[in-house]
Here is the input.
Amino acid sequence: MTQLANTLGELRDSGWESVPVKEEIRRNAVHKIAAGEPLFEGVLGYEDTVMPQLENALLAGHDIIFLGERGQAKTRIIRSLTGLLDEWMPIIAGSEINDDPYAPVSKHGRDAVAELGDRTPITWVNRDERFGEKLATPDTSIADLIGEVDPIKVAEGRYLSDELTLHYGLVPRTNRGIFAINEIPDLAERIQVGLLNVLEERDVQIRGYKIRLPLDVMLLASANPDDYTNRGRIISPLKDRFGSQIRTHYPLDVATEVDIMRQESRSPSVGDVRVTMPDYMEEVIATLSHLARASAHVNQRSGVSVRLSVSNGEVLAANALRRALRAGEREVVPRVCDLGAIAASTSGKIEIESLEEGREGAILENLVRSALLTVYKERVTPDQVREVIAAFDEGVVAHTGQDVSSTDLVALLESVPALRAPVLALTGGNESPPAVAAAVEFVLEGLHLSKRLNKDSSGARATYRGR
Here is the structure.
């Protein structure tokens, strides 16, 4: 910042050139694409689907609308596009609408250059300050987006015909930057009309003023497809002015969903109590979300957000932590018995459709069981558990639950040595008691769901025995 120009004259001498914001973004996107770099970090699963469309739209210099259900990273993508702006941009000092020093559009900027010439003071704004955002609500007004007469300035003695009496809205204040409207179908149709000039003619008109502000703005919008066609709509002229419409989607595979969970989840460890999430339990949580997205009992128009997987993973770990704190353990691994806790984090994120009252709990329980069985069949082969089943058929009984310690579950390996192979395969060779205990419980539940063991549940405890 110490080397940046402070006056218009210094700016000219530095050789700085002014380019439209879309050309600026295009130029920086070209460098990243040519270098094989991602446009931005933190968005997973879109490498072969959404990103090519986004790159095309940016290279074409389009305004963009993103369509997708909730929890598909639409807002994250929009906010991340600021990373394609130059780090610093010069404006005329005191300008409310980021006036270009070479071509000011506001009266303040024009007067400053006319009066001071090359001595016009310059300030610099960071790329993060060049982003504006508005959540569309039915009460959003033209004044919010475009601007309005400021009664305070009128009361100070200015005439209504004076352009300086204007209070600029969010769009003009994001001049030479990126402006985003989230959930645009919720914007009243008469307000959408006010955006037509912004998208096509690139100017705004405020009240009855005979002024024209040729704005330089990239406009982005997001919408839920359900809202797009039912709850609200985007008027046809406005849709026509968006250059590209990009459809987002949920993770296409469980592995991607697990990666997102790991990226977004907060660590549940507290103090010297460490929580270690096993990969097979992460897969259970991710598989649950995938099954919910295909279930006839779940409202698919509402969607099943990736936030479901993130929240379920956090609650699963939190329940294991609570179990460790009560037992005085310093290390804990989430088990099958902790899965009951995710009902609280799931019920608010999916909409169950059932003809019978009170069926929501049973439907959720069936989804959890299906997810467990799916992962179990992928991770444990029948050959690995054949002798385990035989041992239970000969009278072995196992107890699990919240109040059963890791040591008690590890002791089961002594009475059923055949359990060691599938357990260590799940833990990756980790023989710590918490890891082994979680794997033992997973194998037992998988055998029960495969109809190879009987299970009796009583409160927080469960008993497994031969059939």
